[in-house]
Amino acid sequence: MPPVETLAVEDLTDEQRERRRRVIDVAFELGAERGYDAVQMREVAAAANVALATIYRYFSSKDHLLAAAMTEWTGRLQHRVAQSPPRGDTPADQLIDVLRRACRAMERQPKLSAALVRALSSPDQGVRESGAEVQRQIASMGDAILVDLDEQVRADILATLGHVWYSTLVAWGHGRRDFAWVLGELERAVRILVEPHTNAARNGRRRPTQ
Predict the structure, then answer these.
(1) Can you tell me whether residue 1 is helix, strand or coil?
(2) How far is the C-alpha of 119 from the C-alpha of 37, rounded, in Å?
(3) Residues 6+ away with beta carbon under 8 Å from 22
(4) Which of 49, 75, 120, 200 has the fewest beta carbons closer than 10 A?
(5) CA distances, 14 to each of 18, 103, 113, 158 (Å)
(6) Digit-coded pLDDT (tens) for 102-140
(7) What is the DSSP string of 16-45?
(8) What pLDDT is stored for residue 90 in this prediction?
């Protein structure tokens, strides 16, 4: 049986961090090739050359492992955005550009993306923590774009967009919608949430309340 508590990432040694990264990389590969069901902890352990008991010191379940992979994926997106700033004439356009990049990256690896979305639906505590980290990463990208807005307004907008993104991805993951619909819903949400505030700020008027 896996232990009740897993090791926090900040408490790991360099060697343990490298071992943990190998495990996540293997989960990426298996998920991309064959989807959610292919990510089996014993197979991950063998491919990563890590003992099964050691994996359970880092991840409480397969869903926790996949959710951690999602944080890694979002972190890579965050790095790419930092290297190539979002395009667009307005904050709404720039935020849509970031979300479009994310959707396109997920669309290129549909099996992996579906596995990550499925994992995020788990009630596992480790999944909740990883999901919160994904939200923080997304908020960090949005904060830089919406920097001229009030801090609480920014937080409210980004939290709401996070909910819209998650719900649309769940619909996609269950085969009910395609990525064009996901992106369309995200763009609509951005326009509705962001443009009234940025327009008011640009015109020197009092920003609308949430």
Answers:
(1) coil
(2) 11
(3) 48, 49, 50
(4) 49
(5) 6, 32, 28, 33
(6) 888 889 999 999 998 889 888 888 888 888 888 888 888
(7) HHHHHHHHHHHHHHHHHHH-GGG--HHHHH
(8) 94
What is the C-alpha separation between 75 and 46, in angstroms, rounded? 26
Q: Provide the terminal-to-terminal Cα distance of the chain, rounded to the nearest Å.
A: 47
Query: Is pLDDT above 80 for 15?
Result: yes
DSSP string, 67-130: HHHHHHHHHHHHHHHHHSPPP-SSHHHHHHHHHHHHHHHHHHSHHHHHHHHHHTT---HHHHHH
Measure Cα distances from 175 to 16, 49, 164, 179 in Å. 38, 35, 17, 10
* Chain position carrying tokens 């919160």: 132
Contact status, residue 104 vs residue 166, Cβ threshold 8 Å = no
